[in-house]
């Protein structure tokens, strides 16, 4: 009994190994996504889909050619398969699609289009990126690479989106094919830079306000001090220049002082009391 | 019981052997994705254009005998400044990439269609079968006239000198007038002193 149990323990893993069920489960899951996509292409009433939507039949076999082999590679940002792709908002995203023609017919890569969809329902479009027409001919047993780049909006930051990248191609007989090379939910992240221009100028603005406040405060304090002083001065009686002892003549040029002292009207007095008439007379004499 | 264990061991060995054969059945194969990019923002005649080729090996094995050839820059339209338009790369390991840069200088202005480069490599190291591939296409780009470009982006050194010369009269004439009157009155003041 025990040995038969052991036998089962050995046989079961080997059986699993033979069947190789793990990979097949994954493959089926992908096929199902493709099926969804086909429905999307048919149901979507978007103008960009019109070119493919009209031709594509709901039959799954007709959407991808067995002779074509596509490979997606995110160049920017880098992406490891199996993890959720995070795209920084406001920064261009670049990817390459490798296309290999394994069959005997030539293929023509017509266009690649990317679109953001509602992650709960991939039939619902949020943003369509422009479909870039390549029209590249891929001969038999040959490969081609096409590059595509788009920029998720910064305002989408922090939200998940269903990113769908579809490549449209047809063979030499004119049969169109569509393949979704990427159909997953991606997260748009916010790129936090250390110091961007906006915050930098915000701080500059704050500094300016502080300096302004300091200047205003100093002015205010100065006026208060002046008021006090002026009140004390006001009590003095204005005597004019009659009291000649406390007049400061230092500011006058020496020439003027000499003129004043030598003038006959002044009689040695320093105050320049002179009638305008006399002044004009003297000026006339000089000239 | 002993026999039983032996049979288990046999089963184990057989299953292991089968597992390894299924593994080796997936032959390692290189697959190259090649991007060709023009790094310039403005394409100007007689000025350098930077072209970058990046070869990504996304396959499971190394790509050997890789040769990249770009016939998209004919010598009658472009001068090769630096780099080579035909490159041989011995080996690109899987999961790695290689960058190749070429600097060319367009001879004339106008629209030019930048086409794809051609690549050939051995996807399986042991077999001499070559895989042919083409890179991504930068597409059509307008090459700007040099004079037109200078009009917008040069430092305009001579223009500024001309501007300064043109500005001189309006500055120098009032200044000379001021200087004249100043010296005149200074002389008068000196005379007064002497008097």
From TrEMBL, chain A:
It is found in: Endoplasmic reticulum membrane. TRAP proteins are part of a complex whose function is to bind calcium to the ER membrane and thereby regulate the retention of ER resident proteins. May be involved in the recycling of the translocation apparatus after completion of the translocation process or may function as a membrane-bound chaperone facilitating folding of translocated proteins. Belongs to the TRAP-alpha family. PANTHER family: TRANSLOCON-ASSOCIATED PROTEIN SUBUNIT ALPHA, TRANSLOCON-ASSOCIATED PROTEIN, ALPHA SUBUNIT. This is Translocon-associated protein subunit alpha. Residues 45-66, 259-287 are annotated as: Disordered. Its main location: endoplasmic reticulum. InterPro entries: TRAP_alpha. It is a single-pass type I membrane protein. Heterotetramer of TRAP-alpha, TRAP-beta, TRAP-delta and TRAP-gamma. Interacts with palmitoylated calnexin (CALX), the interaction is required for efficient folding of glycosylated proteins. Residues 45-60 have a biased composition (Acidic residues). Residues 276-287 have a biased composition (Basic residues). Keywords: Endoplasmic reticulum, Membrane, Signal, Transmembrane, Transmembrane helix. It comes from Chironomus riparius. Residues 1-21 form the signal peptide. Pfam families: TRAP_alpha.
From TrEMBL, chain B:
Pfam families: TRAP_beta (PF05753). It is a single-pass type I membrane protein. The chain crosses the membrane at residues 157-178. It is found in: Endoplasmic reticulum membrane. The keyword Protein biosynthesis does not apply. Residues 1-19 form the signal peptide. Keywords: Endoplasmic reticulum, Glycoprotein, Membrane, Signal, Transmembrane, Transmembrane helix. GO terms for cellular component: endoplasmic reticulum membrane. TRAP proteins are part of a complex whose function is to bind calcium to the ER membrane and thereby regulate the retention of ER resident proteins. Heterotetramer of TRAP-alpha, TRAP-beta, TRAP-delta and TRAP-gamma. Belongs to the TRAP-beta family. This is Translocon-associated protein subunit beta.
């Amino acid at each position: 009994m025990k040995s038969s149990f052991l036998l089962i323990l050995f046989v079961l893993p080997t059986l699993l190994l033979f069947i190789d069920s793990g990979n097949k489960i994954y493959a089926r899951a992908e096929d199902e996504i493709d099926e969804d996509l086909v429905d999307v292409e048919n149901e979507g009433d978007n103008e960009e889909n019109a070119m493919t939507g009209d031709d594509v039949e709901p039959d799954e076999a007709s959407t991808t050619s067995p002779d074509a082999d596509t490979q997606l590679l995110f160049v920017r940002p880098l992406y490891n398969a199996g993890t959720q792709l995070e795209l920084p908002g406001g920064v261009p995203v670049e990817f390459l699609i490798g296309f290999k023609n394994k069959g005997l017919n030539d293929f023509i890569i017509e266009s690649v289009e990317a679109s953001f969809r509602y992650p709960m329902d991939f039939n619902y479009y949020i943003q369509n990126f422009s479909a870039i027409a390549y029209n590249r001919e891929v001969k038999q047993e040959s490969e081609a690479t096409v590059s595509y780049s788009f920029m998720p909006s910064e305002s989408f930051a922090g939200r998940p989106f269903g990113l769908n990248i579809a490549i449209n191609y047809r063979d030499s007989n004119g049969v169109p094919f569509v393949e979704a090379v990427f159909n997953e939910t991606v997260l748009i992240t916010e790129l936090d830079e250390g110091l961007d221009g906006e915050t930098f100028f915000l701080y500059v603005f704050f500094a300016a306000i502080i300096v302004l406040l300091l200047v205003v405060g100093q002015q205010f304090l100065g006026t208060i001090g002046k008021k006090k002083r002026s009140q004390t001065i006001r009590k003095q009686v204005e005597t004019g220049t009659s009291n000649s002892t406390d007049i400061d003549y230092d500011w006058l040029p020496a020439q003027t002082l000499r003129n004043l002292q030598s003038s006959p009207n002044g009689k040695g007095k320093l105050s320049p009391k002179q009638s305008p008439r006399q002044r004009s007379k003297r000026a006339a004499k000089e000239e | 019981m002993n026999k039983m264990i032996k049979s288990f061991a046999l089963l184990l060995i057989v299953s292991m052997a089968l597992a390894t054969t299924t593994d080796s059945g997936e032959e390692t194969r290189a697959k190259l994705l090649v991007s060709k990019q023009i790094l310039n923002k403005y394409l100007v005649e007689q000025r350098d254009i930077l072209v970058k080729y990046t070869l990504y090996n996304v396959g499971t094995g190394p790509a050997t005998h890789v040769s990249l050839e770009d016939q998209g820059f004919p010598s009658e339209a472009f001068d090769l400044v630096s780099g080579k338009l035909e490159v041989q790369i011995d080996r690109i390991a899987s999961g790695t990439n290689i960058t190749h840069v070429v600097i060319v200088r367009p001879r004339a202005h106008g629209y030019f269609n930048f086409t794809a480069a051609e690549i050939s490599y051995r996807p399986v190291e042991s077999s001499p079968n070559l895989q042919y591939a083409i890179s991504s296409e930068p597409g059509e780009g307008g090459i700007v006239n040099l004079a037109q470009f200078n009009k917008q982006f040069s430092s305009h050194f001579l223009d500024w000198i001309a501007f300064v010369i043109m500005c001189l009269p309006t500055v120098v004439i009032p200044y000379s007038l001021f200087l004249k009157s100043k010296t005149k009155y200074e002389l008068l003041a000196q005379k007064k002193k002497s008097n």
